[in-house]
Amino acid sequence: MQISARGDYAVRAALSLATAYPTLLSTQAIAAEQDMPRKFLEAVLADLRRAGIVRAQRGAEGGYTLARPPRDITIGQILRAVDGPLAGVRGLRPEETRYEGAAENLPRLWVAVRAAVRQVVDEVSLAEMASGKLPGHVRKLIARPDAWEPR
């Protein structure tokens, strides 16, 4: 799985908002804290606002806050809001792929890959991520000896 810069920035911005929740944060404050370009951050926050993950308040005391408590927002929701579906194969959803011959069973593998990704990003909330108290099944994955090894 490849996490885009947009996805990475969206999750980091949402984590800043989670730690400040329900207080409003300005784009300038988030950009400074996370060392992000403000213009790019504004575009990412606009995507999150359209998806109902954050809400904006205008004015001198304005800024952004999460639209729901951090425990009710998953990392997967944030990634989908800015990048679309989590797993795609040549622009198709895994279950939409069709192959002939030796590759005929490949769609099953693509669906399994998507399910594995969902098992992590859809089951970790902003609150868990911000506190570092990840679910047990995610901690087990991180603890595997090969988890931190590049391949």
Count of runs of 4 or more consecutive helical residues: 7
Total strand count, please? Answer: 2
Task: Return the structural class.
Answer: mainly alpha
Strand order of the largest sheet: 1-2
Give the strand content: 5-15%
Mean pLDDT: 95
The separation of the N and C termini measures 13 Å
Q: Which features would summarize this protein structure in a list?
A:
151 residues, mainly alpha, two-stranded antiparallel sheet, globular, WH_DNA-bd_sf, DNA-binding, Rrf2 family transcriptional regulator
Can you describe what's shown?
With 151 residues, this protein is mainly alpha-helical. It is built from seven helices and two strands; from the N terminus they run αααββαααα. The protein has helices at residues 5-20, 27-34, 38-50, 75-83, 106-121, 126-131, 136-143, and strands at 54-57, 63-66. Helix 1 (5-20) packs across helix 2 and helix 1 (5-20) packs across helix 3. The mean pLDDT is 95.
Any chance you could write out the topology, listing elements then pairs?
Blueprint: H1 5-20, H2 27-34, H3 38-50, E1 54-57, E2 63-66, H4 75-83, H5 106-121, H6 126-131, H7 136-143
Précis, in short:
This protein is mainly alpha-helical and about 150 residues long. Helices cover about 50% and strands about 5% of the residues. The radius of gyration is 18 Å and the shape is globular.
